[in-house]
Write a structure and sequence with these properties.
mainly alpha
Length: 77
Amino acid sequence: MGKAFAIVLMAIAVWVAVTVYSEGTDRAFGGLFASSQGSSSLDSPANRSTPERAGEAVQRAFDESQDRFDRALGETR
């Protein structure tokens, strides 16, 4: 019985961890794990999930790369 309880407890822990990772602390479980110091705006980085913040960082890096490329081509013309 103890082993079954431990397996169920580990499954619940993995589910909670994956939910917090994918949703972010402010959205997961109604903000249960959110800090009270964050702003109430949904546009703040604290209120976006990890994949959303990562996607925005990749987009910013791509835009900066394109800008550098365009500036380099503009100087050689």
